[in-house]
Amino acid sequence: MHGFDRPIYTNVIYPFPVDPPKVPEDNPTGCYRTYFCLPKGWEGRRILLHFQAVDSAFHAWINGVPVGYSQDSRLPAEFEITDSCHPCGSEKKNVLAVQVFRWSDGSYLEDQDHWWLSGIHRDVLLLAKPKLFIADYFFRSDLGKNFSYADLQVSI
C-alpha cells in the first residue's frame, strides 16, 4: 500500500485509547486543496458540493468561507456553496480546501473488522441544481393479490 502512514487493522480493539467521546490528541490530519471555475451555463442554479465518502470527519471551505462539516464516515455529505463561489462564467478561480481528521467521536461507532484508513475515499462532485427541486421523497408500494396490481404512495 502507498500512503503517508502505516495501515492499521483490527478486529478486536480500537487503534486508540478508549475514552469516549474523546479522541487522541495526536490526530493525523490530511489537508486538500483544488481550484475550479463554474461554467456560464450554471447561472441561476444552486451549486452543491457533494462528497461521496470521507473518513472520519472533515471541514470544507470555499474561498476561505466555511461551507460544511461532516463526520458520517464514508457516507455522502452535501453542502450548498452558491453564495461562497465566484460568479458562473467568471475567469476567477474558486478554491476548495478540505481538512480531514483521522479520528472523531464518531470513530467509536466504527470498531468493525476493517482497515482504519482516513481521507477522501470516493469522488467529490460539483452539482448544479434548479433553484427549486425535490430532494427528499419516499415511495411506498402495496402489491395486490397475485401481484396483479399495486398501490403506490409518494411522500415529498
Summarize the structure.
By secondary structure, the protein is an all-beta fold. The protein has strands at residues 9-10, 29-36, 46-51, 54-55, 57-62, 65-70, 77-80, 94-101, 114-115, 119-120, 124-129, 138-143, 150-155. It contains no helices and 13 strands.
Give structural notes:
- Its EC number is 3.2.1.23.
- It catalyses: Hydrolysis of terminal non-reducing beta-D-galactose residues in beta-D-galactosides.
- It comes from Actinidia chinensis var. chinensis.
- This protein is an all-beta fold.
- It has one domain (about 10-155): Jelly Rolls (Sandwich), CATH 2.60.120.
- The chain contains no helices and 13 strands.
- The protein has strands at about 10, 30-35, 45-50, 55, 55-60, 65-70, 75-80, 95-100, 115, 120, 125-130, 140-145, 150-155.
- The strands form five sheets. It has a four-stranded antiparallel sheet, with no helix packed on it. Strands 7-3-11 form a three-stranded antiparallel sheet, with no helix packed on it. The protein has a two-stranded antiparallel sheet with strand order 1-9.
- The radius of gyration is 20 Å and the shape is flat.
- The chain starts with 8 loop residues before the first strand and ends with a strand.
- The model has no long low-confidence stretch (mean pLDDT about 90).
